Amino acid sequence: MNHKLLALYGLKFNPFSPELPVDAIYVPHKIESFCWRIEHAQIREGGFAMVHGDPGSGKSIVLRLLAERLKKLPDVTVGAINHPQSNLADFYRELGDVFGVPLRPSNRWGGFKALRERWLGHMQSSRCRAVLLVDEAQEMTPQVLSELRLLASSSFDSQPLLCIVMAGDARLIEKLRREELIPLGSRIRTRLATEFASRDELLACLEHLLVGAGNASLMTQQLRHTLCDHAAGNYRILTTMAAELLAAAAQKDLAVLDEKLYLDVFTPPAKPTQRRAPPGR
Q: Cα separation of 273 and 281, whole Å?
């Protein structure tokens, strides 16, 4: 939405955009608690944390919040894996790129050995705490997940080297039940399940977004309730519908989003009734 249309509604930003400013994100108590534990405890203690839930339930939002908060801390280096589907060699190359450690293996076996030794040496000699964020972690191969477990600590698990926060859907949980990944699953110290939001949580999210964007009266109360009733407990569905309504209102030059607009946008037109021909004589 361009600045002219934002000005039409007195908005500082589009409250339903995926590019929402971090400080405008709605943060329920359970997400706030999870982020606090990572920030104040697990960074120093190392190990694994996991966010899991259905698509659209806020997993990526949690990682985005964590990334912004942790980057403000002294002596903390935050990296993110952007290609979780990588094989083992490419995963090491991405790790080196993320944390600024040049890693160039000359052959597969010698390269993996050199990569791991160099990575561990870098972690042991550095005073910085390293945090690795992995979104869509269900796409990672078992080999890469097992390697992450080895990279996370040394000295027989007594010296934490890395704090790893993974986010994924139900496939990640199923994957961690595989026999070769049980050792990794047993090391997950902090968990957050992003479940379906209640109607009250969805309403609170809408109000937070509208107030933060600068126009608390953009939607009628009845429309807010209607949106929450049809969002199926999913924040992404809620904001997607709201964004469509905002675009439709701007096109029609409407000052307020109401339930009539909702019906115009989301109610399919009635099919015309077909008249049956009279029976032949």
A: 24
Phi-psi region of 143 (alpha: psi -120 to 50; beta: other; left: phi over 0): alpha
Residue in the block written with tokens 């400080």: 23
User: Distance of alpha carbon 83 from its chain centroid, rounded?
Assistant: 15
What pLDDT is attached to residue 77? 86
pLDDT of res. 281: 44
Query: Measuring CA to CA, how many Å separate 123 from each of 6, 87, 273?
Result: 47, 22, 72
Q: What is the mean pLDDT of the chain?
A: 87
pTM, entire model:
0.85
Question: Do residues 196 and 234 lie in contact, with contact meaning Cβ atoms separated by under 8 Å?
Answer: yes
Measured distance CA(153)–CA(279) in Å, rounded: 83
Q: Is residue 167 a contact partner of residue 135, using CB atoms and an 8 Å limit?
A: yes
Q: How far apart are CA 73 and CA 254, in angstroms?
A: 45
DSSP H helical ranges for the chain: 3-8, 29-37, 43-45, 59-71, 88-99, 108-125, 142-151, 170-176, 182-185, 199-213, 221-229, 235-252, 259-266
Q: Tell me, what amino acid is at 183?
A: P
What mean pLDDT comes out for the span 92-108?
A: 72
Lookup: tokens for 156:
């027989």
